[in-house]
Amino acid sequence: MSGSIFTSSIGKKMFMSISGCILVLFLTFHMCMNLALVFSDAAYNAICGFLGANWYAVAATAVLALVIVLHIALAIVLTLQNRKARGSIRYRANAHENGVEWSSKNMLVLGFVVLLGLIFHLVHFWYKMMFTELMGAHEVAIGAAMVAPTDGAAIVRYYFAQWPYLLLYLVWFAGIWFHLTHGVWSMMHSLGLNSKVWFKRMKCISTIVATIIIGGFALCAIVLFLQGNGILPNPLF
Amino acid sequence: MNLTLEIWRQPNAKAEGKFETYVVKDVSTESSFLEMLDILNNQLIHEGKEPVAFDHDCREGICGACSLRINGHAHGPESEVTTCQLHMRNFKDGDKIVIEPWRSRAFPVIKDLVVDRTAYETILQAGGFVSVNTGGVPDANAIPIAKDDAEESMDAAACIGCGACAATCKNGSAMLFVAARVSSLAKLPQGQVEGARRAKAMVAKMDELGFGNCTNTGACQAECPKGITINHIARLNREYLKAKFRS
């Protein structure tokens, strides 16, 4: 009579938050990995080496893909159900409710921005760095040159030296930042890990986590652009 | 003060509704919002027109009968106030006021501004109570309860079940209402006995009745006339997940 956890409203929130949590952890790892490139191409390529054609890297990628699909599928199901629950007639007058974050009401839209960026990102980085290697190719075309797929640093540096790429990535990062400022505290809240005392702290932690992750990504992108255009020395130190 | 009102008119549940514009003159700033509507209705009756139907009962802000979405806010622009306790001093002479019924699939309009909120009662019947044997009233001090717990329980118990939360929520979710009921009882030893069963049954009933899923926007707590916070939703989530994993 009490229904399944998989179909209940709180159950779906739980899966949304667990999948979101895994994605936040992945982003944290990815950001740390990118920071290595700011300091040393060799260090970055060493990490890329671990994540190339190895069974554990492929397994982790598959899990990650599954989690992303689950997160998106749940978001679509929840949104459709919620629109139906709202009813067919909309309010004529609308006003801003006190203390409601813009991002909390636009998570699906932000999610689409994140997804579009992700597809773009996968096509020109993941495809060239991991997929090509998995297919057994030893060279990949980057602009006019041919580079080994294991030379991640060269591939990344090639793209980030161009301002349109930098700009697109910064817009994407902004979308992820907004998504995370709501997502991180919301994930704890949905799991019941929040209270009167922790409520404001959770929101603050959420903003800090989002800013550290996105700040790290943006820093890498900007440093690479500046190095690529001879404004900053490469290596930096 | 003189006001222009845009009010949703719908003759019955099946009929299509539309907005009608009315002008009310010489309204005292001391009158309540519902008294202002009474004045409008007197005027309409004198003109031989159908008065506007709206819900009200105690007019003291404790029964939860009044509703109304006023200029985009549930219970009007003032915070932590029900429509019946909202006074016209919150408006200015010449204001245009848009008055709409609660909009949520689970709260169908019966007539004009009156909606059917039976869904909330149905959720309560599923588990929002403490089962007791009848008999004498027990001594109030027989079970010691920490002051903080008693206060948090009372904060949640302040919910009057008016429906503002589900009506405001962009997802049409009743989570704040269910959370208030589950949380107020979960904080007390008398309520904890049936806590797991209550959380599961009330959430299942809420989902079954077609309410949406909570996405933690917090719009409900901003509009709640009793200041119930979404911290209670965190407790509901905790209670529900604990109950589910233990069963």
Write a concise keyword list for the protein shown above.
heterodimer; A: 237 residues; mainly alpha; 3 helical TM bundles of succinate and fumarate reductases; two-stranded antiparallel ribbon; 8 helices; 2 strands; globular; B: 247 residues; alpha+beta; five-stranded mixed β-sheet; 9 helices; 37% helix; 11% strand; elongated
Can you give a write-up of this model?
The complex is a heterodimer of chains A (about 240) and B (about 250). Chain A has about 240 residues and is mainly α. Chain A has one domain: Fumarate reductase/succinate dehydrogenase, transmembrane subunit (3 helical TM bundles of succinate and fumarate reductases, Up-down Bundle). Chain A has helices at about 10-40, 40-50, 55-85, 100-105, 105-135, 150-160, 165-190, 200-230; strands spanning about 140, 145. A two-stranded antiparallel sheet of chain A has the order 1-2. In chain A, a hairpin with a 2-residue loop joins strand 1 and strand 2. With about 250 residues, chain B is α+β, with helices and mostly antiparallel strands. Chain B is about 35% helix and about 10% strand. Chain B is elongated, with a radius of gyration of 20 Å.
Oligomer: heterodimer
Structural domain tally of chain A: 1
Task: Give Rg of chain B in angstroms.
Answer: 20 Å
- Average pLDDT confidence of chain A is 93
What is the count of DSSP helices of chain A, taking H or I runs of 4+ residues?
Answer: 8
| DSSP helical segment count of chain B | 9
Question: Strand order of the main beta sheet of chain A, please?
Answer: 1-2
- Inertia-based shape of chain B: elongated
Order of helices and strands of chain B: EEHEEEEEHHHHHHHH
Strand content of chain B: 5-15%
